[in-house]
Amino acid sequence: MLPAPEESNTRHGRLLYTVLVDLDAVTASRYDIVAALHRQRIGTGVHYRGVHRHSYFRERFALRPGDYPVADRISDQTLSLPLGPALSDEDVSDVISALRRTLDYFRRPR
Fold first, then answer.
1. Whose CA is closest to 82, among 97, 92, 72?
2. 4 pLDDT band (50/70/90 cuts)?
């Protein structure tokens, strides 16, 4: 799991922090990971889906599942974590610790 690289001459909006979960490295689905984080009182979300998965674009342009495999993979692996000015440093540490515990729990044996 890696954070998105920072672009030069930009400023993060600090609305959402997304991570890309390597589903080949874990024995769980993204939704299993979401459920495990929620049990640890860490709210998460799934905010970004490939444009081709939205009904308007699917219907308007006759898009089918599998038309954009890279976008599908990213759509299935992206997870939004809590972020915002109301989070204390301790809150951020709690999010990081919970995510690490969860990924360690689901880590696929080598």
1. 92
2. low
